[in-house]
Amino acid sequence: MSFFSPKSESNKLRLQMTLTFGGRVAALLCSFVNVVLTARFWGADGRGAVAVFMANVGVVMFACKVCTGGAASYHFHRVGFERLSACAYVWCMALAVVMGAVMACLGDAHPVLYVGATFLVSMSNYYLSVQLARKDILNYNITMLMQPLLTTVFVALTGGVLGLGHVAYFYSLLAGNVLILVYNLVTQRDTIVARLPGSLLIDRKALGRIVSFGWREETANVMQFLSDRLSYYVLGYCCGVAQVGVFSIAVALTESVMAVSKSISAVQYSEVINNGDTRSGWVSNRRSIVWAALFSAAGVAALAVMPDAVFVFVFGKSFGGLQHIIAILGPGVVVASATLVADTYFSAIGLLDRLILKSGVAFAVAAVAAVAIVPGFGIEGAAVANMLSDVAAVTVIMASFARHGRALRGR
User: Does 217 map to a domain?
Assistant: First the structure.
């Protein structure tokens, strides 16, 4: 089935992609408002502190996703909802406590916030994975939209109305994800109540299978995450947290154009998870890769020609020079859109070694580039390091995707 195929059987798939795109655009707008509010309320320093908090949570979230990410979707039909849920809840709570303990030992002032954010955000991700496995695209989009929407509403109330400091962002994140958890428990209450006895027991075999799959996928994901965010840490060390705040805005703006590719990849992932590794699935994903890159290129071009005065007006005087940074990041974001579609395809069919290889190469390039370029060129060097990493990633994953297509033709 193809996104742009005229066949009637593709209509549902196209409708799901359109719905998901609409949800992602709405979520993108909420995220944009969130970025503007945090920058306006707390300036570059506050925005930098928020970026560091989210980066720290993001690192441990990869460990949580061993049981809540692609492994949850992949094993939903294989081990059952109740056993999957038991493993996910226990795994994430244990890791959240460990995260809080580590941050307390490092002298962080808010270790409890790390516990809450780690557990609640991981549960939101878990239900997104379950909804993809069920092909429940409607609730998937509702849950996806609730994440930035609720956080933004609470940020507006705490930071704008009450005038609280940047710590208010952390409490806003917690409050939003509590409501998301309640929503998912309510919408799935019949299944949960019917299978509650089984959901209270950990199946060691099921946990072993999930973890075996999940750690390999998340090894690839954490290396990709670090390759995308390593420049944050090097930039903060060399130039200060304010520069991280400015750079995070540029990254957020450029990555926002990946809304189409994320929509396509999510629906294609759900299709492949349920239909298996087929020649038609590969062809559909190949076409989706091309369109994802084209849509992202159009979005990057629109941002790159926007006058810098617009960014200063929206975000404040401390965020000047964003147009230049966006222009450097742009090519990397375009190829990253293509990488994303291919990544989700390999995850859906369980070929995780391809993802590990791609992410390993991207991380190596990012590490060398960040250390070599950022100290001398600052924020521009960080943008170049990210761009080079993205180009390395797409080169590796596209070669693997092409080889897999030839193998399918030979079957």
Answer: yes
Of 407, 411, 271, 403, which is closest to residue 341 (Cα–Cα)? 271
Q: Which residue has the tokens 């809540």?
A: 68
Asked if pLDDT for residue 296 goes beyond 80, the answer is yes
Q: What is the dihedral of CA 344, 63, 330, 26, to 10 degrees?
A: 70
Would you call 403 exposed, middle or buried from its count of C-beta atoms within 10 A (0-12, 13-18, 19+)? exposed
> What whole-number distance in Å separates Cα of residue 110 and Cα of residue 315?
27
Number of domains in the chain: 1
Task: For residue range 259-293, list pLDDT tens digits in order.
Answer: 888 888 888 888 888 877 677 778 888 988 998 89
User: Within a domain: residue 2?
Assistant: no
97 belongs to a structural domain: yes
What are the phi and psi torsion angles at 136 (to 5°)?
A: -90, 75
Tell me phi and psi for residue 334, to 5 degrees.
Answer: -60, -50
Element (H, E) at 278: none
Q: Which domain holds residue 183?
A: 8-409
Sequence letter at residue 409: R
CA 370/CA 375 separation, integer angstroms: 8
pLDDT in tens, 126-171: 999 998 888 888 888 899 899 889 988 998 898 877 777 778 888 8
- Residue 398 counted as domain residue: yes
Q: Which residue reads 């994440």 in tokens?
A: 147
